[in-house]
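Changelog-adjacent note: as of this version, every example in the card shows the full chain rather than a window. The one below runs 59 residues end to end.
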Amino acid sequence: MQRPGPRTTAGRGFAVKFYDILSQESSDIITWTESGQAFQVVDYTRFSEEILLKAVCSF
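Full-length structure tokens:
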């Protein structure tokens, strides 16, 4: 069994943070698809200005 390295830990942190974003932000901007297996960006301008910038700055 392989031990998790820094990339695995960082990737997991990103996945958790992105899940939180999807759960907390307005569905007018980003939302889960009906199947719940993917997400959809509804408003690309607001996503890049409000969410993406905030997410990148918090890493």
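Structural remarks: The longest strand covers residues 30-32.
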